[in-house]
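Hi R.,

Here's the chain you asked about this morning:
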Amino acid sequence: QVQLVESGGGLVQPGGSLRLSCAVSRSIFSLNDMLWYRQAPGKERELVAVITTDGRTNYAHSVKGRFTISRDNGKNTVYLQMASLEPEDTAVYYCNSHPSVLEWGQGTQVTVSS
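And here is the predicted structure, written out as C-alpha cells:
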C-alpha cells in the first residue's frame, strides 16, 4: 500500500517561512502530478498547489507569489516552500497525487500566530 507522509509543519510568526515535505512510499511518484491541500478548522479541504510530472505548477490565488511547490523524483518527495505566512494560512496541510488518488496521510499542522 502506498503511503503519504507529510512533515515540516510547526508554529511560526506572521511573515515567517516553513518548508513542508511529503514523501511517497513507492515509485508511482514520477507518473503522477502531486498536489498540496490544506484544511483549516471548520472549513473544507482546499487545493493549494499542483506540480505536474513535467514540472509545471499552479497555485490557489490566496497563496500565489508566497508559496512554491517543487518535486524531487529521485527521492519520491514533493515540497511546499511557504513564505510571508499569514494567520489565514493556519491549517493542516496534506499532499496527494493525481490521477492516482492515494489514501490521505496524517497531514502536518501549520500554525501562524504571534
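One quick note: The two ends are 40 Å apart (CA to CA).

Cheers,
M.
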